[in-house]
Amino acid sequence: MIIVMKMAATEEDVQGVVQRVQEMGFRAHLSQGEERTIIGVIGDERPVDQDPLLRMHGVERIVPILRPFKLASRDFQPADSVFRLNGHTAGGTQLTVIAGPCAVESREQIIETAQLVKEAGAHMLRGGAYKPRTSPYSFQGLGEEGLRYLAEARERTGLPIVTEVMAPDQVALVGQYADVLQIGTRNMQNYALLHAVGEAGLPVLLKRGMMSTIEELLMSAEYILSHGNRRVMLCERGIRTFETYTRNTLDINAVPVLKELTHLPVIVDPSHATGKWSLVSAAARAAVAAGADGLIIEVHPNPERAMSDGAQSLRPARFAELMTHLRRVAEAVGRTL
Ligand code: PEP
Ligand code: MN
């Protein structure tokens, strides 16, 4: 449930309610709006007697949250989440464009790509050092060596790094290098991993499971939020459908649905959603038009030689061209790039 404080409630009133909530064995989550404060009550609240809380000074009303996700819900926090990411702001009017190769393949490859996507206007650099591959015989990533190259690319370009972490015991190491921890589609419901990134203190890009519902995505976000990490970005990356022409089907509905249900920033991955570079631009433009807060796009200096996902990777020049188109779409929907 949430406790809506009166507009005239004082800081003392708010603290009094927070203390009472904690004495009752719950955690309190404060959301300070422009006009009033909302206090979220976290925990299994079924047996709670609301009367004593309702009688407290400054309390206006108590509203049950019927949705299974709470901290992620707009009822808890009506205003969009906006957070700083090493110089960039995610979730505000400015879009967040994350670009780079599927995998870090060499020092030269990641530095060259970083410089080119930076020139084209990207805000962050992506690149996997630990790759979740369908086949155990496919390239699995460079591991810590890849993380070091990413850090060097950041040093040279100033671009913050988004990179995937696949297991709880990797979080500490990846966290030493990354600015944003990516949870891949295959790990969206790896609850031990969600717990670990919830405690890591770094922003998280949580990708939707390829066969997960929007509600399941939000429940996974809830795991991270409930472990104390409020900086979660959600990523629609395409889901499995009967259609086989594309690698996945971009669920464009997910963008406005998520914007309705949650305050968390919504990022779209048109690369994994389509699987084909020729479709990436249209899907990216559609995502921005639909209200996405950002994009994560695979870019490779030499896609035909890429060690993973070459077929869906844009050449840097095409990425630069896409950025010019995106600028116009962004402007049409009141955003900047
Ligand atoms: C990736 O971003 O390269 C990746 C593996 O994505 P996903 O987990 O969405 O397949
Ligand atoms: Mn990829």
Topology, element by element:
Layout: E1 2-5, H1 11-23, E2 27-32, E3 37-42, H2 51-54, E4 59-63, E5 83-85, E6 88-90, E7 96-100, H3 107-120, E8 124-126, H4 144-157, E9 161-164, H5 171-177, E10 180-183, H6 191-198, E11 204-207, H7 214-226, E12 232-236, H8 254-261, E13 266-268, H9 270-274, H10 277-289, E14 294-298, H11 316-332
Parallel strand pairs: 7-8, 7-14, 8-9, 9-10, 10-11, 11-12, 12-13, 13-14
Antiparallel strand pairs: 1-3, 1-4, 2-3, 5-6
Helix pairs in contact: 3-4, 3-11, 6-7, 10-11
The chain binds phosphoenolpyruvate and manganese (II) ion.
Phosphoenolpyruvate (PEP) is lined by residues 102, 128, 132, 184-185, 207, 237, 272.
Can you offer a commentary on this structure?
- Helix content is 34%, strand content 18%.
- By secondary structure, the chain is of the alpha/beta class.
- It folds into two domains: 2-63, Alpha-Beta Plaits, CATH 3.30.70; 83-332, TIM Barrel.
- A hairpin with a 2-residue loop joins strand 5 and strand 6 (88-90).
- Helix 3 runs parallel beside helix 11 (316-332) and helix 10 packs parallel to helix 11.
- The radius of gyration is 21 Å and the shape is elongated.
- The relative contact order is 0.12.
- It binds phosphoenolpyruvate and manganese (II) ion.
